[in-house]
From TrEMBL:
Residues 79-98 are annotated as: Disordered. InterPro entries: Homeodomain-like_sf, InsJ-like_HTH. Coiled coil: none annotated. This is Insertion element IS150 protein InsJ-like helix-turn-helix domain-containing protein. Gene3D superfamilies: Homeodomain-like.
Amino acid sequence: MNPALSNDEILEQLKTLEKDHPTHRVFNHCMVVRLSLEGYTQREIAKIVGCNPSTVNQILKRFREQGVEGLVPIKQQGRPHFLSSDKENGTMSSLRTI
């Protein structure tokens, strides 16, 4: 986070972020930062948002380290596919003929 930014500038960046990434998760992350700027404690924020205080702590830590961009969740890598796409297509076509 850029320490030279005022609360108004941060709030404006949060509004822009919500428009660019209209997901429930980003909205909650922005709300956590807003409530923190208003002076709420992490426990109070957790109750309002409906999450664990450690989650609030993680969100605020990412915000301090990365700024507004840190509030956008990183796409999680999942488990690799069991079948290659060729084998999957072959299996699906075999099943359709049954």
